[in-house]
Amino acid sequence: MTPVKQTNQSRFPVWFELKHVCRQSGARTGIVHTPHGSFETPSFMPVGTQATVKGMSPEEIKGMGAGMILANTYHLWMRPGSDIVREAGGLHTFMNWDRGILTDSGGFQVFSLSDLRHITEDGVGFKSHIDGSSHVLTPEKSIQVQNDLGADVIMAFDECTPWPAEHDYAKQSLQRTLRWLERCMKTHQRSHDQALFGIVQGGTHEDLRKISARETCSMDLPGYAIGGLSVGEPAELMVEMLEATVPILPADRPRYLMGVGSPDYLIEGSLRGIDLFDCVLPTRIGRNGTALTSQGRIIIRDAAYARDFGPLDADCDCYVCQNYSRAYIRHLIKAKEMFGLRLTSWHNLHFLSHLMQQIRDAISQDELLSFRESFYDRFGYVKAGQLKKK
User: Fold this and answer.
1) Tag placement on the chain: N or C end, fewer CB within 10 Å?
2) How far is 125 from 317, CA to CA, in rounded Å?
3) Is-catalytic flag, 377?
4) Would you say 222 and 34 are in contact if contact means Cβ atoms under 8 Å apart?
5) Of 98, 104, 115, 158, which is the active-site residue?
6) Residue range 343-365, pLDDT digits in tens
7) Which residue in the list 158, 264, 278, 313 is annotated as catalytic?
């Protein structure tokens, strides 16, 4: 297809280049360009909450093809402190990562401290999970911390509306998020090398999602995120909210679905035009002894694998599957050896990276709907969020 003319590449430090739109599904491939390199989309961003992807080295993450990782404003503000990261030369230097970095605003973390926080128009007062000390995270403070951290993409401070949320509360919440976005934009001091993304909220109410999307997009930002989904709502509701929201987002900006990392949600999001995803899922379930495979999830701790000398996934070419057996990895996990948890995390991250490559290939070949059907059949899904009964 003929590439669309890019209108934003000279104005923003991070910009989106459209490559192909799937004739079968409407999904798209593209390239996100950042001050620290470019990468293909749709793409999954590994989460490095505290300036590290748990159990993995930057070199190992690069080897999987990751073009951008996510770090967390709240955690790095609490420890070691954004001033220390700034003095080190920013996150890229501090953690030895020379590709893209996105920092979230810290909003989700402080809102998840349900018993320790208090919301006002100014911001959110909370107690540190580390030492119980009192702090206030405001839109201004979130942006100042993110300016210190120096990520390529920084996120506006928003209220992550819980699920379920009544219409009136979700409306008040999204209006507050819009007011906070204006304060974030006024505070942002590094628009030359950091792209500020706005976040669409509105709970699971279609009319509010549309209002939030229109108002947020009127701010003319380098990119847009969809927040407040994959927080416990049924998969069907998430899909409905995406279908209501994505068409409003500008086609020439990156679209980011926050906190999504299960294989079915990655496929469903890509089908609806999402470019970027992130989630702790691959490393979190890996540390619990669960592996993602082409035939579905397996719990490698189970006794059934004690004498299974095959790889985690016979269809996988990652380092783990080329060198270690299910029996050995089960032994390591049962013996509480750190290497076992590293291996399951490594494999899971590779699995999602490879899945995103398969999604991009399917889009380029105009076959994403067909790919979804075959993947769901192999993985054991009836549809998004629903595994087949064994």
Assistant:
1) C
2) 47
3) no
4) no
5) 104
6) 999 999 999 999 999 999 999 99
7) 278
